[in-house]
């Protein structure tokens, strides 16, 4: 494997808030008082109810969206508009349907990449993502899992210091999702970017993340916007045993935190 | 191949009707008479090469007007389709200009630009602008915002975003617009040449009408059909090349 990937970068959010204008002209707070430090190379999962500002938080770090208050920084400097130190993979693969898989991945290459180096990098990523056979196919000719891998390869082509994943496996079937989670961990071992991952899947968060950020409104102040409820450290080295006792405990804790009864009876 | 069946059948019926002399030849000339009319025009000792010159000048006018017009349509359509401000500023004005039947410009163009090439080419240009402008600006407004966001997320801005994401996404509409623009160009060519010209296929039409040369009228119409279809096929080729380039 070549050593072209950029070093992982740390991310910090300080008193971050984001409001959106409603159709009636009033302001609705989606996120408030977000304080979070992510170490370089760490994998952090954001969990929370839908509509709870998870994607908004990711978009703030990517620079696709701007905070109304507070500071969002990568490696100690504020994120620029569409910051090129990070790369995003969205919930939908969002491949350009008229381009081949290979040319779609090439779209992710940083500006000014030498053509030969770019081709080599794209070929390497396609191999890593097990897409060798799909290089010259169009997006409509490949499966959802392959399209999602191509989308991930495109994000990695940027050599991002921070990889932002917005429910990247959410639309996949359960088995493909498990395979993709393993693949993501393999990729992270080879290309250790900092990963910020939005998910609604508690188990996914438990398998992948070093820490899990639970986002949501405080029960005693509904309507004031989501903030960080808890940050949980996930014990154990990856790959993790999905059935380990500590993981099971954590799962029920998270489900309760999301307002879902876990029906879990703690072992005596 | 199947598309050739009806034209050939039509040619046979035409030939049969004239060979059986069901209609007088001053009403319906035979295919052979039309071919002869072409040869006569081309080899007339007074104006040698007149037919090719008519074809050449008409094709030149159409191509110039079409290229200039569709380029303007491309720029205006991109502006109005992508920018809210441009849409607010330009939309109503362009809509009003488009509402003027294009032939209404002709007298003014003749007064301002004289009787030679400029008024004809400008008229064809006006005819070619609007199909491209309208289809492109509408289609650009409906490009999948998810794809545009991907382009932005990977650092594409304005012009690059337009050529990498937005234009390829609307390629089918763009080609449809170009096809309409080309058909409009031929329409306005004939109109311009009928009104004021001394060479060209439109002139051949009006001159032949004045002299009751039905064979030459048939010749001009058939030539217009062949030229129109051939240039349309060129757009098809362009479409395939663009798909390959953007594919």
Could you characterize what this model shows?
With 268 residues, chain A is an alpha/beta fold. In chain A, 30% of the residues lie in helices and 24% in strands. Chain A contains 7 helices and 10 strands. Chain A has helices at 54-62, 101-106, 115-128, 144-157, 174-190, 202-208, 245-257, and strands at 11-21, 27-38, 43-47, 69-74, 77-78, 86-89, 162-166, 194-198, 211-216, 227-233. Chain A has a 6-stranded mixed sheet with strand order 6-7-8-3-9-10, with helices on both faces. Chain A has a 4-stranded antiparallel sheet with strand order 2-1-4-5. The longest helix of chain A is centred in the last third of the chain and has 17 residues, at 174-190. Chain A is globular and about 55 Å long. Chain A starts with 10 loop residues before the first strand and ends in an 11-residue tail after the last helix. The model of chain A has no long low-confidence stretch (mean pLDDT 87). Chain B is mainly alpha-helical. Chain B has a single domain, classed as MetI-like (MetI-like fold). Chain B has 11 helices and no strands. The longest helix of chain B is centred in the first third of the chain and has 33 residues, at 50-82. The chains are: A alpha/beta (268), B mainly alpha (247).
The average pLDDT of chain A is 87
CATH topology of chain B: MetI-like fold
Global shape of chain A:
globular
- Strands of chain B, total number: 0
Helix content of chain B: over 70%
Secondary-structure arrangement, i.e. CATH architecture of the largest domain in chain A: 3-Layer(aba) Sandwich
Structural class of chain B: mainly alpha
- Percent helix range of chain A: 25-40%
Tell how many strands the DSSP assignment of chain A holds.
Answer: 10
Uncertain stretches of chain A: none
Structural class of chain A: alpha/beta
Order of helices and strands of chain B: HHHHHHHHHHH
Mean pLDDT across the residues of chain B is 90
Low-confidence stretches of chain B: none
What is the 3D shape of chain B? elongated
Q: What is the class of chain B in the CATH system?
A: Mainly Alpha
Question: Can you tell me the CATH superfamily of the largest domain in chain A?
Answer: P-loop containing nucleotide triphosphate hydrolases
The assigned CATH architecture of chain B is Orthogonal Bundle
- From the alpha carbons, calculate the radius of gyration of chain B and give it in angstroms: 22 Å
Mind telling me the CATH superfamily name of chain B?
MetI-like
Q: What is the spatial order of strands in the main beta sheet of chain A?
A: 6-7-8-3-9-10
């Amino acid at each position: 494997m070549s050593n072209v990937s950029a070093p992982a970068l740390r991310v910090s959010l300080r008193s971050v808030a984001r409001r959106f204008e409603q159709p009636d002209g009033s302001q609705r707070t989606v996120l408030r008082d977000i304080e979070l430090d992510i170490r370089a190379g760490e994998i952090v999962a954001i969990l929370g109810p839908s509509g709870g500002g998870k994607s908004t938080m990711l978009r703030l770090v990517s620079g696709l969206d701007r905070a109304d208050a507070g500071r969002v920084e990568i490696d100690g400097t504020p994120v620029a508009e569409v910051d090129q130190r990070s790369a995003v993979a969205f919930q939908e693969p969002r491949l350009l349907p008229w381009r081949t898989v290979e040319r779609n991945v090439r779209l992710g290459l940083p500006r000014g990449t030498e053509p030969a180096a770019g081709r080599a990098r794209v070929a390497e990523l396609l191999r890593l993502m097990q897409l060798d056979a799909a290089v010259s196919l169009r997006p409509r000719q490949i499966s959802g899992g392959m399209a999602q891998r191509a989308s991930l390869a495109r994000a990695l082509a940027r050599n991002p210091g921070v990889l932002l994943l917005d429910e990247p496996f959410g639309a996949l079937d359960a088995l493909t999702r498990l395979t993709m989670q393993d693949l993501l961990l393999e990729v992270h071992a080879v290309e250790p970017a900092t990963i910020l991952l939005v998910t609604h899947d508690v188990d996914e968060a438990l398998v992948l993340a070093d820490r899990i950020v639970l986002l949501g409104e405080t029960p005693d102040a509904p309507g004031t916007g989501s903030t960080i409820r808890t940050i949980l450290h996930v014990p154990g080295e990856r790959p993790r045993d999905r059935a380990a006792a500590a993981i099971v405990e954590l799962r029920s804790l998270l489900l309760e935190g999301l307002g879902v009864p876990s029906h879990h009876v703690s072992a005596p | 191949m199947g598309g050739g069946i009806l034209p050939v059948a039509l040619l046979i019926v035409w030939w049969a009707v004239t060979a059986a002399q069901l209609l007088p030849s001053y009403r319906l000339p035979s295919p052979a008479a039309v071919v002869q009319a072409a040869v006569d025009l081309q080899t007339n000792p007074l104006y040698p090469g007149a037919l090719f010159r008519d074809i050449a000048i008409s094709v030149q006018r159409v191509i110039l007007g079409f290229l200039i017009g569709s380029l303007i349509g491309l720029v205006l359509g991109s502006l109005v389709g992508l920018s809210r401000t441009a849409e607010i500023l330009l939309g109503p004005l362009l809509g009003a200009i488009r509402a003027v039947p294009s032939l209404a410009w002709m007298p003014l163009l003749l007064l301002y630009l004289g009787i030679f090439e400029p008024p004809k080419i400008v008229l064809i240009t006006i005819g070619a602008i609007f199909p491209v402008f309208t289809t492109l600006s509408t289609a650009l407004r409906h490009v999948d915002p998810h794809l545009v966001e991907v382009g932005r997320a990977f650092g594409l801005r304005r012009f690059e975003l337009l050529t990498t994401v937005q234009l390829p996404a609307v390629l089918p509409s763009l080609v449809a617009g170009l096809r309409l623009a080309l058909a409009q160009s031929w329409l306005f060519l004939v109109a311009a040449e009928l009104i004021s010209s001394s060479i060209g296929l439109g002139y051949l039409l009006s001159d032949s009408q004045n002299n009751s040369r039905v064979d030459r009228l048939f010749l001009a119409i058939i030539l217009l059909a062949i030229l129109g279809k051939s240039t349309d096929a060129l757009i098809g080729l362009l479409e395939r090349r663009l798909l390959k380039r953007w594919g």
